[in-house]
What does this fold into?
Amino acid sequence: MSLPEVFRGSFTQQEPIPDDAIEAAVAVMRHGRLHRYNTLGDEISEAALLEQEFAALVGAKYCLAVASGGYAMATALRAVGVKPGDRVLSNAFTLAPVPGAIAAVGAQPVFVESTNGLVIDLEDLKGKLDQAKVLLLSHMRGHICDMDALMALCDAAGVTVIEDCAHTMGAAWNGVPSGRHGAIGCYSCQTYKHVNSGEGGLLVTDNAEIAARSIMLSGSYMLYGKHLAGPPPEAFDQIKYETPNISGRMDNLRAALLRPQLRNLDAQVARWNERYFAVETGLRNTPGLSVIERAAGESIVGSSIQFLLQGWAPDKVRDVLDRCSARGVELKWFGAEEPLGFTSRYDSWRYAASAPLPKSDAVLAGLIDMRVPLTFSIEDCTLIARIIREEVSAVFQQM
It folds into this structure.
């Protein structure tokens, strides 16, 4: 009898930083002008160039580079006028930086149910639109809801939409880049996202007042004129006196790392999707397992994959995780009672009290999550899917 196959790769190992990005970062270190406003003569900073290039990439008028995706979201909330004590709508299925950004401005999340498709439940949202003036919409794990329907609901109710695009840089809904439906799009450049500067964030908008407030909030002092992707000087005339400096700038070193990566984003997206669909194909028709069907309007970036073990008892889910782990496959579970690593759920965030969400609870109870790094080959992805299929089937047969 042959021994079971084992995967030997790492689920947290990213690809090396590209050589041209390393060379650009070394050039910044050699001249020493890491602060985004520290330039000589008519020199344009790496951060300003990054903002200009990302705005062009997604078709936005304005872009701001900041210290993290979480900082971008908190800045966006402040820029649209969210104050302490206000309520802000958001998905039940998301990661801690999203309610964290709401809490950072002293506001209170109002969680909206999530569907089996892992997107915000538009029916539940419709019933809660009268409770807040802002929706911080999380495209969690790269799943994009029907943005046309969502925007129609929010526009009719006078609710401003801020998009958390931490997992959807390079993705789109009906051809419109993720982050370009709402008033503001916020992106992450953290190590496990689609471009890697360790930490970092980007914010885009077409609204000059929002852009001006965001730039002042980020810590521009009176140097806002150095933002190539910022609004005209007159947009700052009053804002510069009334907006606090909450420093969270991106530095030139991280911007230098990111600019070459952005130029290669489309090719990286294609590579992620090839791996995603190799895993998805291998998981289809596994007894007891449901893949997440993607909507026709969605152009995805498959940097992670999710599936459901719907109706499974917790001990059986843990059995699958343990069996897969023994064969080298690292799966995360959103149904565990205690948060673990990066994985937590809405009832873990006790600073953000919430009413029970039975539909989301049922989804999270069987929700399994797995990273799909570009360091995996297609053969790796096929092997991983085969291991998961075998172990899920084995446990399911015992139920």
The chain is about 40% helix and 15% strand. Residues 19-263 form a domain with the Aspartate Aminotransferase; domain 2 fold (CATH 3.40.640.10). Residues 134 and 160 are 5 Å apart (CA to CA).
